[in-house]
UniProtKB/TrEMBL annotation:
InterPro entries in the cross-refs: LPD13
Pfam families to which the protein is assigned, alphabetical: LPD13
Name listed for the protein in its UniProt record: Large polyvalent protein-associated domain-containing protein
Residue ranges occupied by any Large polyvalent protein-associated domain in the UniProt entry: 71-213
Residue ranges with Basic and acidic residues bias: 255-272
Transmembrane segments: none
Extent of Polar residues compositional bias: 240-254
Region (Disordered): 234-272
Length: 272
């Protein structure tokens, strides 16, 4: 549906052109096709005298109620890619496919309870993210997805009560002071980990997420390294961690080392 991310929105816009009585007596018959095939049909010399689906040249594409391509058995039709860089500009501006991304690192998957499920972006989500974050370029989106999904520093549930299946993964500040966030739906009743949206985050946005987590009994945690799965469970909430604390801690360690060296030197002088 050109100009619409979901079938329901397209139908609402269509019936808005007619009065309510007429709309109640009619219904739409939606046939999904590739954009290229539709354009060929429009440009053909034949008069359009019957329903679109009745033309022999039309090859229908199965979709769900959100307009996402599906297989004959109703499952999502997924195109697997080996790298986030394989996402094209059209995927972000004019999406036509659902995409399966490379597998998450083990430490990320374990932390969010992914159980090794594939990570996907549905066609309608590409469109929704474009609407919500129209300032993002395809290059921005690829950068956010790559860093937040595969090298995150923080993770957690910031809306544990309202959206219990949702997890945020965040890659902390880049050179411009932006955080990069991806919101994931990890539902045990679904076959895939579904990306909900992605965007940049400033310091105020991060503070908001911390407050949300506190208000809903959630936590924003430091992600364990790939070599230490236990650290994530033992880490304090990120709200107790600041750059000042980290600087102070590093300074204290340095001072302690210097004092130890001075003490050892004094002992050596006494012996001599």
């Amino acid at each position: 549906m050109l100009g619409f991310n979901e079938q329901d929105d397209a139908e609402t816009a269509y019936f808005a052109n007619y009065d309510k009585d007429w709309s109640k007596k009619h219904k739409t018959v939606v046939t999904s096709v590739n954009l290229e095939d539709f354009e060929k049909w429009i440009q053909s010399s034949h008069r359009k005298t019957k329903a679109f689906a009745e033309y022999k040249s039309v090859k229908a594409v199965r979709t769900d109620h959100q307009g996402n391509p599906v297989n004959a058995d109703g499952t999502l039709k997924l195109e697997q890619i080996m790298s986030v860089n394989e996402l094209t500009d059209d995927d972000f501006y004019n999406p036509i496919r659902n995409v399966q991304l490379p597998a998450l690192p083990k430490n990320v998957d374990n932390s969010i309870g992914g159980n090794g499920k594939p990570v996907i972006i549905k066609k309608n989500i590409f469109g929704c993210n474009l609407e919500r974050h129209s300032d993002l370029t395809p290059e921005d989106s690829r950068k956010i997805l790559t860093t937040a999904l595969y090298t995150p520093d923080l993770y957690g549930k910031n809306q544990k009560k309202k959206r219990p299946y949702n997890w945020v993964v965040i890659n902390t500040k880049d050179s411009e002071g932006n955080y990069r966030l991806v919101l994931l739906e990890v539902n045990e009743n679904k076959d895939n980990i579904e990306i909900v949206h992605w965007h940049y985050l400033d310091k105020r946005g991060l503070e908001k997420i911390k407050r949300q987590a506190t208000n809903e009994d959630g936590q924003l945690l430091i992600l364990p390294s790939e070599f230490s799965e236990e650290v994530g469970a033992l880490s304090d909430p990120i709200r107790n961690l600041s750059s000042e604390n980290k600087d102070t801690s590093s300074s204290s360690i340095k001072q302690a080392k210097e004092k130890t060296i001075q003490t050892e030197d004094a002992k050596k002088q006494e012996r001599s």
